[in-house]
Structure to design on (720 residues):
């Protein structure tokens, strides 16, 4: 047989496969051979490479299909409804088991004991005893049931046969036919036959549809109870505002993302009920104490307030977490959905025109706490500080307290409104001093007003023991304007600032230190508390500290102090604009629930017009008050005339002696004068101080000549 041959593409010759003869040497010119050689066909990728590429493409396609939104939705739908059936079966089985056993009574008994409710525990114990007695009676009745059933069946058969026979006799007599005697019995037999026929016809479909109907019933139970994993359940909004029950609270705590808490709840035989105290109605919400298991800190729960609120189907501002006195316990207050967005009623200052105030023994009706109870605050010998962001109701909240105090005719007010838009205008005729304006000049007057309070405080302190003083209240609204004022006085002392050289700062500190003892008090309102516009020593000098909405936790700590914030106070979580007038208060002058460091109060809003009405009632209680719109610096003096007076008949007097004589003449006007002040007054008069024998001197003749030639029609200070 001839062997197959192949062609050599490079040589153009033919070889046999079994030809082992040596191949003659290639003498072809390589260059020519390269030119003549045909192009090499592209190589086909190995099958393995093709297979790998196909696997990769298949895997990508599978992954794309598996991660597609429609696939994931379909998978969740399938798992959800499948778990409805499984969960429904579990629920029905548990109900059946609890219906036949005492497990439900025992569970409720354990929960009542864990909650410390002995009365409820006793009630469940009595129910358990009655259930066990009834179950024992049923079991005893089952022993005699067969005998009773046999007797009942025999009696029923006899009665039925007798009844049919009597009925047949009546028919036979009526029809005069003896055969009708068996007609009722035959009719009963025919009825039984038809019943058997009907059962035979429908039995097959019932057997086929029965299991499906059972599964449908289980599915309905599971769907109603949402017995499926959370990740497959559809997004729901219908549960917003749902009632707060023990199971809801425990589930919300379990799902906070705190591993020790979740593990502890799973291990508890009562499903976490032991952690909860009684759920109490508290105003427009409910309150419950939660004793945390070992390994869970209270601040971990506080730090997850938003998640806890969402787990409870509430907004963050509707859940408050405080720390009571009991160890390892948090107190949850959960508002009814939307309740905090409803306005509270008007102030008693508006509704009760006969209302009066008592500074020492009374309490101002400021608003309502979250429970809906009246929030009454004592202002007796307590310095007051209120802070908050701009336009949150700070002035209205502070003014409401001042209006109540104004109804006590003994109280004197000195007010500096450094906003100056008329918010305190109704106190014209009530306050002895009313400064209104935001300029540096107004800050200077406000500072001098505080310094006047200091002088009055020092006078009272030095009064004889037993002296009774009327309350003196200094109010500075927008106090941050004073602290930020850059103006300095003639002695280079700044009016603003937080250092010991600041006149406003030092006056406020002096009042805080000793004013309370003699009923000289300082109320301040300020925006956006920081170390620059509300120094630490000033804010810590206030006995009552309140804050409206703030931006950060650090500001909340400046406003209320670390203790209040660590105890759960969170004005930084109030909603700016939506929670206007809502303040968080830290003070011993207001009733705070035991174990809490602060309380949240929704203050009554009193408009400017309504405030004027209340102020008019307060004015009617007084004999009349003259309100100064600036600080009275004493009588107006003529420095040049006073210098001429102290010179007397002496022709020349040393400037040092002139200063001493002026101070003796008027301590208030000249007590702090220096040589520079004296020189400033005499400049341009021709009587300037000059040196005589190496010492500065003032000549009487020169000053007399200037006074004689001075325009007497001008002001007394024209020469200045």
């Amino acid at each position: 047989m001839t062997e197959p041959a192949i062609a050599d593409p490079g040589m153009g010759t033919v070889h046999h496969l079994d030809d082992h003869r040596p191949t003659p040497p290639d003498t072809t010119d390589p260059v020519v051979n390269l030119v003549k050689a045909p192009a090499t066909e592209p190589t086909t990728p190995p099958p393995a490479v093709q297979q790998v590429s196909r696997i990769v493409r298949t895997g990508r396609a599978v992954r794309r299909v598996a991660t597609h939104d429609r696939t994931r939705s379909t998978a969740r739908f399938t798992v959800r409804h499948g778990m409805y059936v499984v969960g429904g079966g579990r629920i029905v089985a548990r109900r059946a088991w609890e219906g036949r056993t005492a497990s439900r009574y025992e569970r409720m008994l354990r929960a009542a004991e864990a909650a410390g409710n002995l009365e409820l525990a006793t009630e469940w114990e009595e129910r358990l005893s009655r259930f066990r007695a009834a179950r024992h009676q049923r079991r005893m009745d089952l022993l005699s049931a067969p005998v009773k059933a046999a007797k009942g069946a025999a009696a029923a058969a006899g009665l039925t046969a007798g009844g049919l026979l009597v009925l047949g006799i009546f028919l036979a007599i009526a029809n005069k036919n003896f055969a009708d005697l068996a007609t009722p019995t035959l009719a009963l037999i025919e009825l039984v036959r038809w019943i058997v026929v009907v059962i035979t016809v429908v039995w097959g479909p019932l057997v086929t549809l029965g299991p499906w109907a059972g599964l449908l019933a289980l599915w309905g139970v599971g769907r109603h109870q949402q017995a499926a994993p959370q990740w497959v359940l559809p997004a729901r909004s219908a549960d917003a505002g749902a009632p707060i029950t023990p199971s809801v609270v425990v589930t919300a705590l379990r799902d906070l993302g705190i591993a020790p808490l979740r593990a502890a709840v799973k291990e508890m035989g009562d499903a976490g009920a032991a952690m909860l105290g009684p759920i109490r109605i508290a105003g427009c919400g409910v309150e419950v104490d939660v004793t945390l298991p070992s390994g869970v800190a209270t601040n971990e729960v506080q730090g997850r307030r938003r998640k806890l609120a969402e787990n409870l189907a509430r907004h963050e501002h509707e859940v408050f977490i405080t720390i009571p006195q009991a160890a390892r316990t948090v107190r949850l207050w959960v508002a009814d959905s939307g309740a905090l967005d409803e306005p509270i009623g008007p102030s008693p200052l508006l509704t009760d025109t006969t209302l009066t105030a008592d500074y020492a023994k009374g309490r101002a009706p400021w608003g309502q706490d979250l429970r809906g109870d009246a929030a009454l605050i004592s202002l007796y010998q307590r310095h007051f500080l209120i802070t908050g962001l701009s336009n949150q109701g700070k002035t209205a909240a502070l003014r409401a307290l001042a209006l109540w105090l104004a109804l006590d005719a003994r109280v004197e007010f000195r007010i500096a409104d450094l906003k100056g838009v008329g918010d305190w205008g109704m106190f014209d005729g009530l306050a002895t001093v009313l400064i209104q304006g935001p300029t540096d000049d107004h800050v200077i007057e406000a500072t001098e007003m505080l310094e006047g309070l200091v002088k009055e405080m020092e006078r009272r302190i030095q009064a004889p023991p037993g002296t009774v003083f009327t309350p003196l209240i200094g109010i500075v609204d927008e106090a941050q304007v004073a602290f930020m004022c850059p103006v300095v006085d003639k002695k280079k002392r700044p009016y603003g600032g937080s250092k010991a050289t600041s006149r406003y700062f030092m006056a406020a500190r002096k009042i805080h230190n000793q004013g309370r003892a003699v009923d000289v008090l300082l109320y301040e309102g300020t925006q956006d508390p920081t170390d620059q516009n509300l120094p630490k020593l000033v804010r810590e000098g206030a006995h009552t500290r309140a804050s409206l909405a703030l931006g950060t936790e650090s500001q909340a700590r400046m406003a209320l102090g670390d203790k209040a914030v660590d105890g759960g106070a969170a004005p930084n979580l109030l909603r700016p604009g939506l929670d206007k007038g809502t303040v968080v208060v830290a003070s011993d002058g207001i009733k705070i629930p035991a174990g809490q460091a602060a309380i949240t109060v929704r203050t009554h809003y009193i408009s400017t017009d309504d405030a004027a009405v209340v102020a008019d009632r307060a004015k009617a209680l007084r004999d009349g008050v003259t309100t100064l719109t600036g600080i009275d610096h004493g009588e107006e003096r003529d420095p040049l005339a006073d210098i001429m007076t102290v010179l007397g008949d002496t022709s020349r007097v040393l400037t040092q002696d002139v200063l001493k004589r002026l101070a003796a003449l008027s301590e208030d006007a000249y007590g702090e004068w220096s040589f520079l002040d004296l020189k400033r007054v005499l400049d341009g008069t021709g009587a300037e101080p000059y040196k005589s024998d190496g010492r500065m001197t003032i000549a009487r003749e020169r000053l007399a000549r200037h006074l004689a030639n001075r325009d007497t029609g001008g002001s007394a200070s024209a020469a200045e």
Notes: The longest strand covers residues 520-527. The CA atoms of residues 703 and 709 lie 10 Å apart. The chain is about 45% helix and 15% strand. Residues 118-175 form the longest helix (58 residues).
